[in-house]
Amino acid sequence: MSENPQWASESFWKKVAVWVTAGSFLILVVLTFDTLKQTSAGGDRVPAYSVINKKIDYQFDKKLNKFMPIIDGEELLFGKEFSEEEAEQLVTLGKKTTQAKNCMNCHTLLGNGAYFAPDLTKAWLDQGWLTVGLREEQMLKFLMDPEKNARTFGTDRKMPNLDITKEEAKGIVAFLKWMSSIDTNGFPYNFTTIYAEDD
Amino acid sequence: MSANPETVKQSSSSLKDKLATFHSWAAVDDSTLNKGQKLAVKYFMGAVILFIFQIIFGLLAGIQFIAPGFLYEILDFSVNRMIHINAMILWMLYGFIGCTYWLLEDESGTEIVGLKYGVIGFWVLSAAITIVVLVYLLIQTGAGNDTTLWLINEGREYIEAPRWADIGIVAVMLIFFYNVVMTFSKGKWSGIAGVLTLDLVALAGLYVAGMFYMTNITHEQFWWWWVIHLWVEATWEVLVGVIMAWSLMTILGVSRRIVTTWLYIEVALMFGSGILGLGHHYFWIGTPEYWLTIGGFFSALEPIPLVAMVVHAVYDSGERSFKNMNHPAMAWLIAHAFGNFFGGGVWGFMHTLPQINLYTHGTQWSASHGHFAFFGAYATINIAFFYIAIQHWRGNVWMGSNSLNEWRWKWALALLNIGVVGMTIALLIAGYEQSFIERAIGGSTWGGYFAAQTHPSFMSAMHWRMLFGLVTAAGLGLLVWDLLTIGKGETRKAEMIIHSK
Ligand code: HEM
Ligand code: HEM
Ligand SMILES: [Fe+2]
After folding, report:
1. What is the ipTM of this complex?
2. Is residue B120 part of a domain?
3. pTM score, two decimals?
4. Are residues A24 and A61 in the same domain?
């Protein structure tokens, strides 16, 4: 191996490989702790589940130069004020239902999943629900019988009937409302919410 | 059931007869394989079967973009797509396990330690997969509770397998490890063996990160990407580095010192960029802003190791004027080097910076990259290994120039690559259109989404994808036929290659 300079030798690169891997992994672990702390429910970025009692909007923030969730005032869901515990229970039911019904293999959530149906990140705020007053009722009806209440917008693509019960549908709506309050660094860009017309 | 020993013996011997008939029809000969390789060919056959399933269900899902009523409420898009991508992950894992068992005895210089457990593991895993797929097909979804997540479907893209199956998969992986680690320990360790073992530990450990339920979707997706990204852009990438190193050494005769040094360089570059490159999935899921910088920066470096791998493979082959003992395998290895670079490196790089990913995130753009990368990086190298295995299994027959029915492997290679590249381009066009019309202009509302989906350029892209999907399927058909027949009736033995020291 004498013809080999140090920088091209096996032992040199072995050491580099070990140190680079260990170093990168260590940084990842540190950042993971920080990220999990910053994103636990109830923090600045991911609101507490009881945010479902509030009015949530999503608007362009000129100072930050990105779209941001705006949480202010009361806007009860299903006409009921949820305690923190009740809210978590309902959102949990909704989240489990989205997994059990495999929503992610047609839709994207926070932009991840499949591309056969619209993104659900800000579905709660979509103008597709027509008016703020009609929204909850429309969502429940749609989830429980998507075939009859199809919103196919000219594609003929229809969501199948997934045997979602009324309780599960309420859970999903609560989950979607909570998800729409997460600070996603401005994704999606340029989204016009259901409140925009009211202004 | 109290079975009569006599009938048991009879039926098992008739099974043996059938197997023998099959072996003689396929012109394969177990006595040419070492024990690890006998186990490997089981995994390779499982992989090919799952590959066929992947393509069938991909075609079904693709048709539903064009004819949404097709199989509506019988096999919905979600079911077809789930089986499409699950079959893909599984066949590739089968292939990788097979590759490892294939090289284990040669590399360690000794017999595999726990063959019996390895065989049991194979059948347990295959039975579990059969049950999971039957449940996907027949039960599909369940109520929104833990029972569903444990028994039917976990509903998380790529790792949908219900929790009971997760536990089974981990158990089988432990058997696999035991075999790998104990066999190397009994025989000898090498650079390749060391990297392989540590990489497998990481690969299996990461799977555990995807086994927990979380209501907080930001946390859930954070860990989900640990599995998906740190598999395909770190541990799998290093695993194929190992397989490539071993293949270049055995079918080309490159020296061990050179492939080992390259392997360390690749590990350093790949883990150095890929581990923190994980951040390119943490732009928009609720995670802090520093990920925009970290994820953008490190993932932009990820193409570098992929270039290094192309240079390595092409340089070593060129230096030997591509003289090798297995032409189809060599061709697929070169396809791997380029596919990995273009599908992963170039297609990945194009949308990895947050400024562009804001618009392309979760569009057909991602699907374009996903197809090109998984095929280019991982389907190719597994196919190369199928050819390496079949050559030995048929008694180390000639697979050099002027072998019988050469057109088959050449056409299979061409059709599969043209098919996937064609689909990639069609999806890319759809992705650009969607990023522009749905995302930039339409603001990702439902209205914006459907405006993009009904756009003529989107619809024509979906038709082109279908056409190239059929080309891909034809290529797969030819590949299977070729694997069943290549080298049959060949009387010449494989050429000997000269190994450099
Ligand atoms: C061979 C290795 C690779 C494979 C198999 C692969 C596969 C994939 C797949 C399947 C997805 C879509 C995930 C989903 O379903 O949401 C994805 C996303 C992504 N990949 Fe890769 N990838 C590879 C390498 C790379 C590299 C090297 C880069 C960057 C240079 C990259 C950048 C990205 C980005 C930015 C996304 C996110 C797309 C989005 O925001 O929707 N990938 N990758
Ligand atoms: C007959 C050929 C194929 C057809 C028609 C096909 C069709 C599809 C369809 C319709 C989807 C769903 C995309 C969406 O959600 O909108 C999909 C996803 C996917 N397919 Fe295929 N596929 C084929 C072959 C392949 C091959 C050969 C591979 C890789 C080896 C592959 C890997 C993937 C991956 C990784 C995804 C998930 C992409 C993502 O989430 O970004 N497919 N395919
Ligand atoms: Fe990634």
Report:
1. 0.96
2. yes
3. 0.95
4. no
